[in-house]
Amino acid sequence: MSAQLWIPFAIATLAFACMPGPAILYMTSQTLAHGRRAGLRAALGIHLGCYAHIAAATCGLSTLLHAAPMAFDVMRLAGAGYLIWLGGAMLTKRTPDLGEGASKQPGVLRDSVVVEVLNPKTGLFFLTFLPQFVDVSGSAPVWLQFLLLGSFVNLVFSLVDVAAVLGASLLIGPLSAPGLQRLVPRVSGSILIGLGCVLMLQSGLPAL
């Protein structure tokens, strides 16, 4: 890619990365509820899950998803339902020590991968954003350009996500009082449930 494309591509990528979205909200909730290590595992899970969308977009599967609104809604409903389930688990589980981190939360990485894979908006983002910077007359094949650009975007997004997790972890100390330790997971779980309900409403399906 020429410098004339790299500069706007990098600026646009950074701008999108800094926009607060469901992923940052999810990782912040995990950090406040279970500690910094859990938040970092959540960020890693989101990062790994994003590669599924990069691969799908590279192979043209995101085009099929865009042409099949029913599939889009089914994936969105599944992802929203999973977020609600995770939020409900936060509300009902034993309150963890905020200093324990992810050592007692082994499923955070797995859950984060599932949350990201079931987010169809990520696939559509790559489908609509990356083609603007692909040079069909370039020496590299289009699929390779798509893959490299998608990996670069994912890396930038992940760096911003880690910064958000570290920022949220600074609040753990002030929130370590026994009363607040019981409150934080409940607030975090409520945020995830609310996020899932919003996604359900956006899909045009009634929230259960």
Structural write-up:
By secondary structure, the chain is mostly helical. It has one domain. Helix content is 75%, strand content 0%. The protein contains nine helices and no strands. Helix 2 runs parallel beside helix 8, helix 2 packs antiparallel against helix 9 and helix 5 runs antiparallel to helix 6. It is globular. It starts with a helix and ends in a 6-residue tail after the last helix.
Tally of separate domains = 1
The overall strand count is: 0
Content of β-strand: under 5%
- What's the helix count? 9
**Unreliably modeled segments:** 95-103
Rg measurement, Å: 18 Å
The span between the termini is: 47 Å
In N-to-C order, the SSE pattern is HHHHHHHHH
Q: Give the proportion of residues in helices.
A: over 70%
Biggest sheet details = none
Shape: globular
Structural class of the secondary structure composition? mainly alpha
Q: Summarize model confidence as the mean pLDDT.
A: 77
How does the SSE layout of this entry go?
Blueprint: H1 3-18, H2 22-34, H3 36-58, H4 61-67, H5 69-92, H6 108-117, H7 120-129, H8 142-169, H9 178-202
Helix pairs in contact: 1-8, 2-3, 2-8, 2-9, 3-6, 3-7, 3-8, 4-7, 5-6, 5-9
Please outline what is shown here.
By secondary structure, this protein is mainly α.
